[in-house]
Amino acid sequence: MENTYENPNEAAADMPIEIAALVRYARDNDCSDLHITSHQPPTFRRLGDLFIGPFRGGKDSYRAAILSMLNEPQREDLSAGRDLDFSFEGEEGLRYRVNVYRQQNELAAAVRILRDDIPTLEDLRLPDALRILAEQPRGIVLVTGPTGSGKSTTLAAMIDYINVHRKAHIITVEDPIEYIHQSKNCLVHQRELHRDVPSFADALRSAMREDPDVILVGEMRDFETISAAVTAAETGHLVFSTLHTTGAAQTLDRIVDVYPSHSQGMIRSQLSGVLRGVVTQTLAPLADMSGRTVATEILIGTDAVLNLIREGKYHQLGSTMQSSAQVGMHTLASDLANLVRQGRITKETAEKAVNNKAELLQYLGGGY
Fold this sequence. Notes:
Elements: H1 19-28, E1 33-37, E2 40-46, E3 49-52, H2 59-67, H3 72-79, E4 84-89, E5 95-103, E6 106-113, H4 128-134, E7 139-144, H5 151-165, E8 169-174, E9 187-192, H6 200-207, E10 214-217, H7 223-234, E11 238-243, H8 248-258, H9 264-274, E12 275-285, E13 292-300, H10 303-311, H11 317-322, H12 332-341, H13 347-353, H14 357-364
Parallel strand pairs: 7-11, 7-12, 8-9, 8-10, 10-11
Antiparallel strand pairs: 1-2, 1-6, 2-3, 4-5, 5-6, 12-13
Helix pairs in contact: 6-7, 9-10, 12-14
């Protein structure tokens, strides 16, 4: 495997590049992402770092590889100047999440390599608190973290847990659909943005007439979607969604800040009635560099937590999580410190991943 970032080799400019070969190489080398662009060879991400793969071609071959993933309507959208978000099914039914865009008037693509199965919560080494959250009859559960932190995989595992252990109607609204859920003990319907429904908010409003028990909303990205998700939870549904935030306090701030100032007291009150938990996660490379492990922050909607939310005292949530391990709560710094003590990750890795370095060092104590 090549590990240096080098200039393209133009000597092989006419060599065809097959998308099947690129994604097969990515899977064989445990890569999470593939980048195809016109001005350099295909680039791969493994354990968070980029490297150039062993493929060489000219920009026409890279363009052809990108276009081979598109159907005719997608090509028309691309010609009209639109970026594309879609899922792509390659060899043997393996799936990929793709974004195609233009840069310097040339095509480029980012391809996320999806797992070929739906992992269980145990497979992912996630805390028992996530199982308890998946067993809630109603309310909102939020999974947050930066791009590439495994939010979609965690949610897929939680939905699969419900699919196995409950008899319910699950509706997902995704952009795009990443993991395909076969109905097990549950009836599962999956809707894709721009293909099955125009927006998350429209899908949520329609869901109220579709007899769901569980609703997965791919992302709470605007006022309309957040408002519709809260309403769905208030009317007795279990709602899962994601935000690109890096902690429980920031998550609640983000939601409340979407509302106009005169409505922020109202949304705090609504959240204090429906929030069941916030799971923040990040992926950290293992100490032996054999893969990555998840580190989490867990906020559970206890009476004490909901009172703090109602009063807008988000700055106190950290200390509440620190003192509430008996109900499954912990901070990200606490979980990273545990991973360091277990020898699973290095102290340096933990320091890069943590939001509060002082808290991490406090947990680690003098032995580190």
